[in-house]
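Shipment paperwork, digital attachment
Item: protein structure file
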Amino acid sequence: MTTPRLHHVQCLTAGSLHRMAYWEWGDALNPKVLICVHGLTRQGRDFDALAQAMSDEYRVVCPDVAGRGESDWLLDPNGYTVPLYVADMVTLLARLNADAVDWVGTSMGGLIGLGLAGLPHSPIRRFVINDVGPTLEASAIARIGSYLGLPMHWNSVDEAADYMGSISKGFGPHTRAQWLALTRPMLKVEGSGFRPHYDPRIGVPFRAVTPEIAAFGEAMLWKAYDAVSAPTLLLRGADSDLLTAATAQAMTQRGPHAQLVEFAGVGHAPTLMAPEQIAAVREFLLRP
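Attachment content:
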């Protein structure tokens, strides 16, 4: 396995600057750029398997969204919102000197992509949305909120992997080696053990959402989705509790009329490590 290159870019938020880390695979001079953006509590190394599979065709860039991985934590936790993340991605695209990109977004990364793809003159050429949509199921949000930001400490990588496996059953079947690969970048050394890699305060704006805010947000997301003009592939875990079958079907019938691919035996969210998952992304992105 090759190792990605780690870079940082300086981003602006209200009253301060923060550095966003990003992992780069493939030829740094390749004008074909693929951006892969992770879910709420994850980080860019989630895409190692997909990035390696795509690096023969693309310069693959996998950011650690602010507050995660190797990126800075924000001074104000209320900044942990999709509009700030979209602004950070615009800064990243300027650093990459990329006028057009393809995008793979898992869960939150899909919503960030949606915020960018729905803008006039969007740089997104082809758009892969992984197990998320404008309508987010309240029960899934509550499930995620039940562990988001909890003060955790593990004595070993194996102990951390077992815990993360217990809260991530929707990822579907993985070998132990695959699960350890998904776990190691999620950890920061703390004393003789490990803690989660992300700022626990990312849960502050998450928990501040009221039913009224959620309804307004859903309407805005559908408006953004209907404005997307890029060819779009929608991936769904067949057992997903966040993206229902009804929402996925609606996404095939409005906006960019997404092509839908479902994966049996997987919930929220496909990790894009399995050969059939990688193949679905690769076939869509490289289609003439």
